[in-house]
Structures
1.
Amino acid sequence: MRILLSLAFALAATAASAFETPAPYALLVDASSGKVLFEKNPDKPMAPASTTKILTAEVIFSLLSSGKLSLDQSFPVSGHAATEGNAESGGSSMLTKVGERIKVEELLQGLLVDSGNDAAITLAEGVAKSESGFAGLMNAHARAIGMSHSHFTNPWGHAGNRVTCRDMVKLASYVIGTYPQYYKYFGMPSFTWQGVQQQNRNPLLAEGADGLKTGHLAASGFGIVASGLFGGHRLILVMNGLKSEGARAEEGRRLLEFGKSAVGG
């Protein structure tokens, strides 16, 4: 039996070493066992872009769970939030308007489905009065989760935030395990606000993933944090630095397929 197990682990290690990806940063983990299935620069600092919003959501989930916030509570949209979220500025938006009040649940959907910068800023200002104040909460939560090599200056993924793949796996695992009642928002296929329907930007939902978030900045490329259950194993994938949306979708699919094969999913 020991010989067979040793052979199985040797074969898995060989397969992992043979797998290659053009992604500059990648980490694939079987969260059910803690086993690393593939890694490439997992501890090298990188810009998370809009995957930052996973931590933004975690702070909100924590306040909801403690009763300090409710899904029906509403926050006003400031001029700053509406401007940063305006499609004309090049950012992702849930299409808010200055002065309107929006419920926390709707802001969460705008944050995680539409990737709305306006939703992130509205939540941050509603909770902590300012982006910088909310960033303080984000850093405190990151430290508590064990994200020891990450730092955040804003809630929506603008330049200044730094993470590692390993820290983002810790964050995804924590969110999935701690907030099952709210994790569903990450996997919603679409969200409609003000009569406009936007589709979830996560291409791996079509490959069996059940949630988390994409991100993109010109300086960092295209990235994703994704997770799904395959063959009874919870896989978590973090990948960043791809050159296009198509490359992100294809490499994400390849890595998930590799992970499913490794766990027998």
2.
Amino acid sequence: MNPLVIGVNPNENTMREETPHIPWTPAEIAADVAACARAGATVAHVHARTADGAPDHTAQAYATIATLIRERCDVLLAPSLANGAGFDVGQRLAPVLDPAARPEFLTMDMGCAVMDLWDPDEHRFRTDGRVVVNDTATHRRLFACARDLGITPWMASFSVSWTRTITAHLDAGEVYGRAVLQLVLGGPEFPAAHPATVEGLDAHLAFLPRGHDLAWIVSAHRADVLALAPEVIRRGGHIAVGVGDHPHVERDLPTNAELVAEVAAIARGLGRDVASPDEARAILGAPAPVPTR
């Protein structure tokens, strides 16, 4: 079995009311990712933020983050696209088109979903208008961009229907090189995704594309992915963790680096090595390193 790739999702769009360990500024993000790299992380999925935590969709913000991270460590980058309200595909691609910000992976959501969070205690939705929309034309343009830029598609799936869509694009020959599938599980607050249980994982894995060169990595939004880590590790998958996905109150609010270190410890305890940056690059089919300026 190949070594375990550990990804970190350090901030997403999470605010600091839930955990104080959310990095916002480029310097904070770079320092946090570097600490995670020392703990065993080899991939980072970052969201550019302003100093007060608001989304920053500018290419310059992502270029600054990429430069600062690469000055500190060899982590591979899979940043968010600029998914501002009403943004067209060209605007969404801003984080990857600037050569200074060019990542190893182009992240894309492979379907449509209601993104409103559910409050299981109050039995009500907290919001009622958050929707993510990604049609086939958008997917095709993103695949073409990845091919033209020489970067690897990183395809997120919330459900079997999204994974079947990925399979269709693979069968159509629109994905060149290795495919990376992120299987996103969800806690009780996030009903858009398969539940963060063994059964939810099984449902995803039953529909993994067959006959294609791929790697799969599991994350959990609003749930503790560490509870599923042994199962993922034994089955040959990879893991992404971070306080951007879940504050981990039940674990006394750990830092991102502490979460990464815990995943690494679980893997080693099960006899599976943790991937180095070079090994992660090979396992995930990432392009050659981007020179620092």
